[in-house]
Write a structure and sequence with these properties.
single chain, alpha+beta, Carbonic Anhydrase II, two-stranded parallel sheet, binds zinc ion, TAT_signal, carbonate dehydratase activity, lyase, metal-binding
């Protein structure tokens, strides 16, 4: 374990005679880099001021989520989805319940392959549809070789119990804990998506710091159902884990109706 105080004290000496092109404060930040800049959902408007790395949260022009209001009809190719059953590796990271997925699950967007990394939940929904929010939203996060993300988003509305989420809901850790593997539970990823492939698409950002503008958003037009009891259980762990909607600015939302 490095003693940070002695390291910082030694730094000015270490810098003397060197030709570092970056500024001293940024070097300090880099040295202290393991310190995570804490953010929360109470003050999302302040994310952009917490650290330089979160600047896009404040200055970005292609931020997410957004209100889905008016659409450009399009004849896009449907998204190709290749999902399997996976073991349940679940984590409460303090901001959401996240399920880390195994390699081998992917989608093809505009001819490009994006591998599934994880999925997680928001309460209430982050995107809204003509100003209307849903009780919850599911995000399946995929990444291509260049590091660009493609997120499949599914609205969850109150209705019947969602049996495909039952085992996951029973395993949900109520406090922040590292990943744990739940024995003998498999999650069928395909069942987490609506059967109707109609989607909206737009380009935007991560909805958590650092708010990087690297995300192809693919939002299913049809919601899935989840019971009031299931919503309540998530609510008790995360009363609010949704970023407010951001300005659409110069962007268009494409609509592909199947
Ligand atoms: Zn999300």
């Amino acid at each position: 374990m490095i003693n940070r105080r002695s390291l910082l004290k030694a730094l000015p000496l270490g810098l003397a005679g060197t030709t570092f092109s970056f500024s001293f404060p940024s070097l300090i930040a880099a040295v202290a880099g393991e310190k995570h800049h804490e953010w929360n959902y109470e003050e999302p408007h302040k994310w952009g001021e917490l650290t330089r790395e979160y600047q896009a949260c404040k200055l970005g022009q292609q931020q997410s989520p957004i209100d889905l209001e008016s659409f450009v009809a399009s004849s896009l190719q449907p998204i190709e989805i290749s999902y399997q059953q996976i073991p349940l590796r679940i984590v409460n990271n303090g901001h959401t319940i996240q399920i880390n997925t195994n390699p081998g699950n992917y989608i093809i967007v505009d001819g490009e392959k994006f591998d599934l990394l994880q999925f997680h939940f928001h309460h209430p929904s982050e995107h809204s549809l003509k100003r209307e929010t849903y009780p919850m939203e599911l995000h399946l996060v995929h990444q291509n070789k260049q590091g660009t993300l493609a997120v499949l988003a599914v609205f969850l509305k109150e209705g019947q119990e969602n049996t495909h989420l039952k085992a996951l809901w029973e395993a949900m850790p109520s406090h922040k804990i590292p990943e744990k593997l739940i024995d003998n539970v498999r999650v069928s990823l395909e069942d987490l998506l609506p059967k109707n492939p109609s989607i909206y698409r737009y380009f935007g950002s991560l909805t958590t710091p650092p708010c990087s503008e690297i995300v192809h958003w693919v939002i299913f037009q049809n919601p899935l159902e989840i019971s009031a009891t299931q919503i309540q259980k998530f609510h008790e762990i995360f009363p609010l884990n949704a970023r407010p909607t951001q300005p659409i600015n110069r962007r268009f939302i494409l609509s592909y109706i199947s």
